[in-house]
Amino acid sequence: MDPLGAEYDRAFRTLLTHAAGKNSGGAHLASTVAALPRRAVFVDAGAGTGRSTAALADSFERITAIEPNPHLRDRLARACPQARVLAESIATAQVDERADLVLCSHVLYHVDPGQWLSTVQRLASWTARGGQTVVVLQNPEGDCMRMLRHFSGYRYDLRSLPAPFTAADLHHEWRTSLTTVPGTVETPDLDSALTIARFLLNDAPLPTPPPRLDELADYLDQHHRTPGGRYLLTCPQDYLHLERAA
């Protein structure tokens, strides 16, 4: 799917419609925000359509949203008009004010794993004392990521980050923790399941030629069709918290 196209947008909406547990993720972020000692500045790095940006915006005085994709950026501006939007990547964006919360949600799929540590260190450099950087990805043991791995060979795992990040923390400024929030996707029919599966497969480079639609349908039928004819996939989310000392 073309990330700039209407089909991609429709597929994302289909995923949100059929995702159970998205409210749990929102509640987890809300509790994180409530525990912050200060809530002046929020940076959403890779804000996408602005769904998370808008959900947390009222808790902060100032918001910066980073989003290089122009199609997503238009929706972001409508969803959260009070945000200052930077049309750049995380690697090039200049954040001139330290943030109490830096959020990077479902972005690292699109970053070379060899650059994960430097990317997270850059996010952390924007974080004020007493603040947090929170990085979110799907847990690699969920059904959605197993499907991605089956067709692409790629495995994404946030658990690889805390050890090298801590090792590079020469001044012992940071405390790291990782929380897994349960989630599932359940659809009433194969067409909806295929739409969501195709959307999820955009998170990794696919082989050439890419998998055929009938191969994807066979995989869903074999692994995720329920006795009632519905399709159920687990998609737990990992939240990596980097908390900077006050």
Features:
single chain, 246 residues, alpha/beta, Rossmann fold, seven-stranded mixed beta sheet, three-stranded antiparallel beta sheet, 9 helices, 37% helix, 24% strand, globular
List the helices and strands and how they pair.
Layout: H1 6-18, E1 19-20, H2 22-34, E2 41-45, H3 51-57, E3 62-66, H4 70-79, E4 84-86, E5 99-105, H5 116-125, E6 127-138, H6 143-152, H7 162-167, E7 174-181, E8 184-187, H8 190-200, H9 213-224, E9 231-234, E10 237-244
Parallel strand pairs: 2-3, 2-5, 3-4, 5-6
Antiparallel strand pairs: 1-8, 6-10, 7-10, 8-9
- What is the terminal separation in angstroms? 44 Å
In DSSP terms (H or I, runs of 4 or more residues), the helix count works out at 9
* Helix/strand order: HEHEHEHEEHEHHEEHHEE
Count of individual domains: 1
- Share in helix: 25-40%
Category by helix and strand content:
alpha/beta
CATH architecture: 3-Layer(aba) Sandwich
By CATH, the superfamily comes out as: Vaccinia Virus protein VP39
Strand order of the largest sheet: 4-3-2-5-6-10-7
Q: What kind of sheet is the major sheet? A: 7 strands, mixed
